[in-house]
Amino acid sequence: MTATDHSSETDDMPTVAAGPDYSLPSDAEMQAAFKLIEDNAQRIFTWKYDREREQLVTLYNKAMASQWNSVTELDWSTDVDPEREANHDHATVHLARRVAEMPGSPLKNWGDKEYRQLALELQKAQLSQFMHGEQGAMMVAAKIVETVPWIDAKYYASTQTMDEARHTEVFAKYLHEKLGEAYPMSPFLEDQITVLLEDDRWDIAYLGMQIIIESLALAAFGDMLRTTQEPLLKKLLRYVMADEARHVAFGILSLGEYYQELTDAELKDRQEFMVENTIRSRSRASTPEVWERMGVKFDDVLPLFMEAVKESGRSPINSFQRGFFAKLVPNTRKLGLLDRNGGFLREQWEQAGLMEFEFAEDTASDYEAYDEVAKDRAAAAAG
Ligand SMILES: [Fe+2]
Ligand SMILES: [Fe+2]
C-alpha cells in the first residue's frame, strides 16, 4: 500500500513507521503542479549544416559571448528589505488612496501599513508573472529549436533556451529568497503562451514570443528598472534585458526573411494574429489575487477602481502600454506586416491609435548597444 492509497485504511489502524515514499503524486497533486500541452507542430531534422544566414551567425556568436552566470555574476548576499524596495509610487497605490475615500469603500480603514503592503504585493505579483512568462519563453524557444527549418536559427534558439532558463531561475530565486511567496500565473498570460506552444506553424511561436511577448517584457522590465533602487534587482534586470534585446532581434531577422515568401492569404492570418493579440489584449484584467491577499474582495473593489481611473485619468498600464507599443509597432513594420493585404494591419492599428509609433526606434539592433554584460566585464577588466 502506498501513502496515497487510502482505500483499505480505517481510522483506527495503527500507523506503521514508513520508509521514504517513492509513490507517484496523486492526480490532484499532478493537476496542481503541471499543465499538459499538446504541440501540433512537426519537428524538423535538417542535413543542411552550411552557415547561410550571416546575421544569425553574428547573433549566435554574440549570444555565446554574452551568456552570464546567475550564480557567480549576481551578488545573492545582497540584503533586501522587501517593503522598502517596493514601488510606493505605483499607480495602483495612488488609485487605492482615492478609492479609500469613496463612500462605502472596502479600503476606508486603510493606513500607511496597508499601502506599503499593497506596494509589496504588487511587486511580488509582477515578478511572479515575469517568472512564469520566462518559463513559457524557455519552452517556446525549445519549440523553435525543434521546428524551425534553418540550422542557424536552431543554433540561435538553443542559446535562447539557455537564456530563458537562467531568467526563470533568477526570478524564481529572487522571489523565493528575497520577497516571499509567488503568485500563480495570470490566466491571460497562460492562454497567450499555451496558444503558441500548441500551434502547428513554426513562425507563430516566433511572432507571439519574440515579437509580441518579448516586446511586452522589455517594456515591463524597463519600467521596473526605472523604479527600483535595489542593486541586485537592478543588475538582474539589466542582464535579462540585454538577453531579451537579442531575442527580439532574432525574431525580426527570422520572420523578416520568412514573410517575404508567404502568400497574401498566409500573411493575412499573421496580421489577424497581431490584431487579436494586441488590441484585444489591451483590455486584460489586473491580478485579483493581490486583493485577496490584502483581505479585500476583488469584485467589491474593481468598480471603485474603474471610477478612480476615470476620475484621475491615471491608469496603472498607460505608461507601460506606451512602452510596449513603441517597440512592437516599429518591429512589426520591419517584418513587412503593416501594409500587405491593402494595409489591413495598419488600418486596424490606426483605429486603435497605435500608428504614432510607426517610426519609433525598432529593436533590431538594440542588442549591440545594450550589451550590459560586456560593459560590466570590460569595466571589471579595466580595474
Ligand atoms: Fe527571458
Ligand atoms: Fe527572451
UniProtKB/TrEMBL annotation:
SUPFAM superfamilies: Ferritin-like. It comes from the Bacteria. CDD domains: Ferritin_like. InterPro entries: Ferritin-like_SF, RNR-like. One of its GO terms (molecular function) is oxidoreductase activity. This is Ferritin-like domain-containing protein.
